[in-house]
Amino acid sequence: MSVKIMSAIFDSETLGPTERLIMLSLADHADDNGRCYPSIARLCQRTGLKERAVQTNIRTLSAAGYITIIPGGGKGRPNLYFVRANPAADAPRSKCTPAYDDIQTPHMTTSNPAGDAPEPSGTIIEPSEPIGSSSSGADGDRKSAEVQRAFEAYNAAAAQSGWPMAQVLSKSRRSGIAARLRECGGLTGWHAALAKAQASPMCCGQNSRGWVANLDFIIQPKSFTRLMEGTYDNRIAARPQQSSHRPQNGPDAALDQIARVAGLG
Questions:
Q1: Most exposed: 197, 199, 200, 258, by fewest CB within 10 Å?
Q2: Helix (H, G, I), strand (E, B), or coil: what is residue 201?
């Protein structure tokens, strides 16, 4: 259960009642990276909705950027979901969502207390920082969302290729992914790198140790450079097929000639 994501979902002003219910059910199964894999039957049980309603709303939430779906990527082969309390950073912002720099400290107001009431407290509760915000503003939000998407893209490739699934997006992994994204030109280059790794026999276990690639290997500077340069590409070229035609020389050719002379050929 991710209390952080559930709290942000409760505070959302853009989710409808049914969408919010499904998002809360997903967050109830998720870790703090938003990763979860409940079955559709489980979501129906937790929300009280019919299967069709659950699937329709999941597609709507996916299209709006609230969740990413990796078919068959979960444990036991259900869908794997990555839940975001707010849409992706490049999605249009809802007009009812305040900009981060518009948030102000609320003023404490009190009504006239009864004569014997105690003095009011001078404590002012600061608003909580919105999820995904940072001191660098919108650019920091965009980069953070890009790192999250790269992390999810790795897990999607891992589910297809038999690599270990990455469970935690730690600070060191965030830093490594961000550095590799800068080197390869963003998510387009990152997807290209993952495709090269998936096409590499060595990265997929075809080696003497049965070793396979993982996220920490891919984001190492030296490994990533070699991957992009083609060091791990499939080098086995197709062997030319040997012709089955036998040359007409040697003993067989001589026997054929004798047979023709004798009138036997």
A1: 258
A2: coil
- CA contacts within 13 A on the Cβ side of 19: 21
Residue with tokens 């709290």: 7
Domains defined along the chain, listed by start = 1-88 (1.10.10.10), 135-234 (no CATH)
pLDDT digits (tens, 9 = 90+) for 230-245: 898 887 644 455 555 5
Separation between Cα atoms, residue 203 and residue 210, nearest integer Å? 9
Cα gap 191→160, rounded to integer Å: 14
pTM of the predicted model as reported, rounded to 2 decimal places: 0.45
pLDDT single digits (tens) 200-235: 999 998 988 899 999 999 999 999 999 988 898 887
Q: How far is CA 211 from CA 75, 157, 162, 217, 222, in A?
A: 21, 16, 11, 11, 18
Which tokens is 194 given? Answer: 């993952």
